[in-house]
Amino acid sequence: MNPNRNPISGKVTLWTRQDIRSLEELRMNGVIRITPRHLKEKFEEISDYIAALYSWFVQAANQRVPKPADVLFPVWCSVSEANMLRPTEATVVYVLEVDESEVIYFDSVKWDYVLNHLYIPKDSDDAQTYREEMRRRGHRDVYSFFDHKTAHFYARERTEIMNSWSRVFEIDQWDIFRVQANLWEIRKEMVKSILYQQNADSNEHL
User: Which string of b and e fits 76-95 if b means at least 16 CB within 10 Å?
Assistant: First the structure.
């Protein structure tokens, strides 16, 4: 699926930006994993909200690529250098060479639906059908289904929405601005090179 895939080795190239402190973690442990601390530092006051949705993602992704037992959260990656997050003073970008069997592809536009607790339609017809069904049931505000003050009234609607979220893993077209990838961890042998802010246009090879 990934045009960066080497047909002989079965490996693909991915790019991921991580805190510069991860370099020491990689050096000491030979592996980088995402922890609750990472989410707290990145998302700050909304970290609990994000962690809850990441937990759903982990359960669903684990059905596709089984995760190591002690991994909590996935590592977000870009599938194209053109669309990768650039290194900053406080971050580095790892250029990874990974067995494609370890990669979980997903649609970042559909992920936005998950972030907003919305139904992911199969297509435009399904979206229209869903809107009509919600109007038929008298629902004008679909955002209230997950509001903690009213959620207990909408168990059916929440189930329908959450069941649709599995479509986040359905790649309708290969678009580097939509498709992203997840890994369960970064192991040292995966790291092909590291990009720093001062050498973002050139690779530092390990």
Answer: bbbbbeeebeebeeebbbbb
| CA Rg value for the chain | 19
Residue 162 predicted with pLDDT over 90: yes
Residue-wise pLDDT for 177-193, tens only, equals 999 999 999 999 999 99
Q: Which of 77, 73, 90 lies closest to 35 in space, CA to CA?
A: 73
Count CA atoms within 13 Å of residue 87 on its CB side.
Answer: 20
Phi and psi torsions of 46, nearest 5°: -105, 15
Strands of the sheet containing 91-99, edge to edge, are 104-107, 179-183, 75-78, 11-19, 91-99, 191-195, 204-205
Residue indicated by tokens 């490996």: 11
Q: Report the DSSP beta bridge partners of residue 180.
A: 78, 106
Q: What is the pTM of this model?
A: 0.87
